[in-house]
Amino acid sequence: MPKFDIRNFEERLRAINEFDGNLRYGAGAFHSKTNRTGKGRPSSGGMIREHAKVVLDTGVERYQRVESLWEAVDACPVCKSTDSEMFLTRFGLDIYRCRECSHRFLNPRVKYAEAMRIYADDKTASDIYSQPLQVEIDEIKYQYGIDLIDQLNPPARNKIMDIGCGAGVFLKMADRNGWAQCVGIDVNERYASMYEETKGVQFISANFESLEPEKLGTDYDCIAMWSVLEHLYDLHGILSVMKKMLKKGGLLFILVPNVESLATRLMREMSPTFAWKHLAHFSPASLKRLMEIHGFECEHFETVISEIDNIKSYLSGEYPYNGYGDPAGIFDFITPEYIHKNLLGSRMIGIFRNA
């Protein structure tokens, strides 16, 4: 049985805080033990290994894009409006804001073929998400996700798919919780060996934008996309495929970064969420709008991951990701309750029903 009632905010908040690494271990220790700090790591304040393949730090006019690897984005990926404005620039990346639907998007973006080549050997991600502490946190997080899904009454508990399954922790948790058939898809081949010893889980190595419902099946009770939608080149195309693969009444579970989180509002260009591979930066409004376009009804919406230590480090005048925090307690009024009640968490969870 779930440890919380989905309708009770206080119970959900206690469960959410259990997989918030900043809260449980402190930002400094958590970032260090999960390979996020150090030269070339996401929390270092500089470019990571994969980013440096498409942007050059020349030391003169810094952060010059390798032009042959980039392409323009002519319209908002969500609403197709051409009315946009510059939002921010970070390490050679230009992020625009759609004036129509509030969506933020990378423009220009790395060409699809080049991105797939880099994804297939994404050492930075595999180094983080294969760390024991990260796996421990992820197991708690994914159990929370399974509990949310179960309380929203999927048609059955037969078939579940995780698109962008990474190290497969979510599917392992689904298998433990009695889901009959657990299918995972990921383009990063570094994860393939992890599935050789995993019983009850089927792993398919493929890119997400060429999924074929005829081969993968069209009767899934739930499809999950944890930190995937922000990477995709054809949002409307993939959601059309999801519609075909889900049963009527089936659930689509989405977790994406929240471009309107408190951390991102404060730190803007310093936030590592603005990465070369994040093409889409959703606000609560733009995510819901995308789902409405495709006939998905919102069943549940919330934020998770407070980034509270990073926020307090920044407000203390320190680098946000060095673990400084708020030793004097000046910012004690900023709490996870305040953050999540106001949808200011670092990540959004939306669960949508195939109407």
What's the SSE blueprint?
Blueprint: H1 9-17, H2 21-25, H3 27-33, E1 55-56, E2 64-65, E3 70-71, E4 84-90, E5 93-98, E6 104-106, E7 109-110, H4 112-119, H5 123-129, H6 132-151, E8 159-163, H7 169-176, E9 181-186, E10 201-205, H8 213-216, E11 220-226, H9 235-245, E12 246-257, H10 262-267, E13 280-281, H11 284-293, E14 296-304, H12 308-315, H13 336-341, E15 347-354
Parallel strand pairs: 8-9, 8-11, 9-10, 11-12
Antiparallel strand pairs: 1-2, 3-7, 4-5, 5-6, 6-13, 12-15, 14-15
Summarize this structure as a short list of keywords or feature phrases:
seven-stranded mixed beta sheet; 355 residues; Rossmann fold; alpha/beta; four-stranded antiparallel beta sheet; single chain
Query: Architecture, according to CATH?
Result: 3-Layer(aba) Sandwich
Biggest sheet layout = 7 strands, mixed
Poorly predicted sequence stretches spanning 5 or more consecutive residues: none
What is the CATH C-level name? Alpha Beta
Number of helices, where a helix is a run of at least 4 consecutive DSSP H or I residues:
13
Q: Quickly count the domains.
A: 1
